[in-house]
Description:
Elements: H1 3-16, H2 23-33, H3 41-49, H4 51-61, H5 63-78, H6 86-107, H7 109-113, H8 119-139, H9 151-162, H10 171-181, H11 186-212, H12 219-246, H13 250-268
Amino acid sequence: MEIWHAIVLGIVEGVTEFLPVSSTGHLTIVEKLLGLPIDDPAITAYTAVIQVGAIAAVFVYFRRDIGRLASAWFRGIGSAAARREPDYRFAWYVVAGSVPVGIAGYLGQDLIRGPLRSLWWVAGSLILWSAVMVLAEWLATQVRGERELRLRDSLIIGLAQCLALVPGVSRSGATISAGLLRGFDRVTATRLSFFLAIPALTAAGIYELPAALSESIGVANLVVGTVVSFVVAYASIAWLLRFVAGHSLLTFVWYRLAVGGLVIGLLATGTITAT
C-alpha cells in the first residue's frame, strides 16, 4: 500500500461510514480497483482500523451529548435518583444495543475476513438491503423521539446492526431502517445510529490494530488513512443530519442499486474478479 492509496481509502471511509451505502462495501470495491488484495487479512484489518477516524469525528461532533450521557451514567452509579434520569437510561441502552454486534463480530470473524469479502456478496447486499430500506420508509410512522427509546428498541436495532457485518448491507442503513420500523423519526434514528457506532467500531478497530500494523500496510499509511477519514467523516455527519431532516432514504437506494448493478456487470464481464 502506498500513501496515495491511504488517502483515497480515508476519503472513501469518511464519506461513506455514516451514509446508508456501506463503507465496508465501498472500501472493498475501491481496494479492488486499486489493485490491493481484498482477501488479505492485513487489508481487512486496515479497513476496520481507519473507521476509528470516523468514530473520532462522532466524538468531536457530539461531544456535548456524549459528555452529558457519560456524566449521567457516572452519577447513576451512586445515586438512585440519577438512575431515573432519561440520559442515564439512554446511555445504558446504547451499551446494551452494542452488545449483539460485538458477539456476532467475534464469533463470525473468519466468515467476515473470508467468504464475505467477495464482491459478489458486496454487490448482492447493496441491492437486496435496498428493498429493506424502501420498506422501512414505506412503513415509517416517525411518531417517536429520543425520549421514547426503550431497552427493547435498542436491542432490536442492535441486532439489525449485526447484519451490517456483511459488506454491502451498511451499518447505518441497517440501524436507521430498524429505527424507522420501530416508529422513530429519521433524525432520532440517525443519531442513535451514530451513538451505536461508537462502541462497535472502536472495539473492532482496536481488535484489528495488530494485524493492520503489518509490513504490507505500514504505520504511515494507517495514520494517514485514519486522519483523512476523521476530517471527511466530520463533514459527512453534519451533512447527513441536515439531509435526513427533510429527505427520505430513497435517494440512497437509487445510488446503492446503481453501484451494485455496476459491480455485478464488471464481475460478469470478467473486468474484475470477486476476490
